[in-house]
Each structure stands twice: as C-alpha cells, then as structure tokens.
Specification:
The chain is of the alpha/beta class. About 50% of the residues lie in helices and about 10% in strands. It folds into two domains: about 80 residues, no CATH class; about 180 residues, Rossmann fold, CATH 3.40.50. It has a six-stranded mixed sheet with strand order 2-3-1-4-5-6, sandwiched between helices.
Length: about 290
C-alpha cells in the first residue's frame, strides 16, 4: 500500500457526509499528512545545540563548534525525508552578553508562537544558570508547555574520566552528579515537562529523550517529526506514540466540525458516528502514510 492508498482508505468512511462538510474535513485531514513541524533549539553558547540536532535527525543541521558560537541569528533548516519535512529553527545562544541578550529578546518573542517545541539545551557541567533562568522567566514562561529542557554532554559530568567506555554509560559517581544536575534544573526552572539528560556525542540517553519529546509535541507534529529521526531512534514505542498522536489529531478534526452550532443536530450526529471509523482507519494505515 502506498501513501495515496492510505489516504483513500481514510476518505471512504466520509461518503455519508454532506459534500461541503466532507470536503472541509478531507482538506483538514490531508493537511495533517502534509504538516511540517517547527522545532526550535536554544541554549547558551557551547551547550551542544547543533550536535544534539545532528544526533537526533538525519543529515547535517548546522556546523558544530566547540569553541565559538556559530549561530548569531535564528537560522532555519528544512529536513526532508520523502514527502515529509521538518523545519529546524536554530536560535542564537543566550548568555554571551547582556546587550546581545536584550537584542535576542525581541527575536525570541517573535518566533516562539510558531514553534511546536523548543529544546532548551544546558551543559551538564554548567553551574552558571542565572542567565538561563533570567531569560526563561523574562521571555519563555508563557510558552513553558512548549519547552523541553535537555541536559547535554552527560559524558563530561564529574568525574568525567570515569565514563564507562565499554558500555557507553556514566559511572556510578557520574550518575550521582547527573541526578543532582537534573534536580537542580527541575528546582530552578520548574519546567512543564520532565528534564532529559543525554550525551549527544556518545548517543547515551537519546532514546529516552526522543520518547519524552514525542509526548511533548502537539498531536499534529509527532508523526512528521518521527519520519526525520535517525532510524535507531525511531523505535516501536516512538512509532506508537506518533500513531496515537495522529489518531488523536484526526479525531480533533471531527470534534471541531461537530462542535459547529451552525450545523443541524442530525449532521453533527453523523459526523460523530463517522469519526470513530475514520480514526480507526487512520491508525491502521499510519505506516503507509508516513513511512
């Protein structure tokens, strides 16, 4: 079965609806299959934003620099896999200077409303989080439900020389440091979502982070984002989350249509009846639409 076959399977149960309603719902459903998620990534210079993007998604995102900030403005990159795409917005790192952060405030406030999710990256060994906290309180608080904090470079957590190279895992002493850092970020920012800890360089913690990220995304964004993940990160649980999200997004289309007070009660009843059938089909053909 191809993507077009999957869409046709979704369309069939709509035949019992009036033409105008059917056309409206069908266009909304098609837009779901074409949706392009917009993901922002931010954090202080040197936090490893670009390396995290490269670890998550297929293909290069931005140049990676260990020393100097390499993104001074909001840079957009489109990742494409087949007929699906993802827009990455690489936001400039905060904390370089007070003057520059003031300039960035207007930039962030303009861009934040269009983002489905913001990955806020913090270095595992960064103890100076006052700038991050100030910027979060000043600019991000209204969008906290869209922010996922990611502590990166877990392999550099003290004592960094004890990282288990054979198993690619932190040592027991590093685990204590990492957990203390996680609690500190949780206490400082009081985030809406769980704090993730990863090592983008080694890949440690990335699978858990992806599962958390999928839970944070709007339903419309989870499936197209899943198509852009590196294959090893697009696990069965991640695909299930995306499939369930797509089913919920499809259901929302019908719920919105059925809530219109301008429609006769009989038509709204038909919409609600058709809804469950279409959601069931959408879940069944999800693989063919997105993969």
């Amino acid at each position: 079965m191809q993507k077009s076959d999957g869409l046709q399977a979704i369309e069939k149960p709509l035949a019992s609806l009036p033409h105008a309603i059917r056309s409206h719902i069908l266009e909304r459903l098609r837009s779901l299959t074409r949706y392009e998620p917009v993901i922002g990534i931010m954090g202080k210079t040197g936090a490893g934003k670009s390396s995290l993007c490269n670890a998550l998604f297929q293909g290069e995102v931005t140049p990676v620099s260990d020393v100097n900030a390499c993104t001074r403005d909001a840079l957009r990159f489109r990742l494409r896999n087949g007929s699906h795409s993802l827009m990455m917005v690489d936001l400039p790192g905060v904390g370089e200077s007070a003057q520059r952060d003031e300039e960035y405030t207007a930039l962030y406030r303009r861009i934040l409303p269009e983002l489905d999710l913001v990955l806020w990256v913090i270095k595992a060994d960064d103890r100076a989080l006052s700038v991050d906290e100030h910027f979060y309180r000043k600019v991000m608080l209204a969008y906290q439900h869209r922010v996922l904090f990611v502590i990166n470079q877990a392999d550099k957590a003290e004592p960094c020389h004890t990282w288990d190279l054979a198993d690619n895992t932190p040592s027991p002493d590093q685990q204590l440091t990492i957990e203390a850092k996680r609690r500190a970020v949780q206490h400082l920012f009081l985030p809406h979502h769980p704090v993730c800890v990863v090592s983008a360089r080694t890949g440690w913690g990335m699978d858990t982070m992806v599962e958390t990220m999928m839970c944070c995304l709007p339903d419309r964004a989870s499936s197209p984002l899943a198509t852009q993940l590196h294959g090893k990160l697009c696990t069965a649980p991640v695909k299930k989350q995306a499939r369930d999200g797509f089913g919920s997004a499809v259901g929302d289309v019908f719920d919105m249509a059925a809530s219109s007070s301008f429609l006769p009660a009989s038509v709204r009843a038909v919409i609600r009846t058709v809804r469950d059938a279409v959601v069931s089909v959408a879940r069944a053909v999800w693989d063919w639409i997105f993969f």
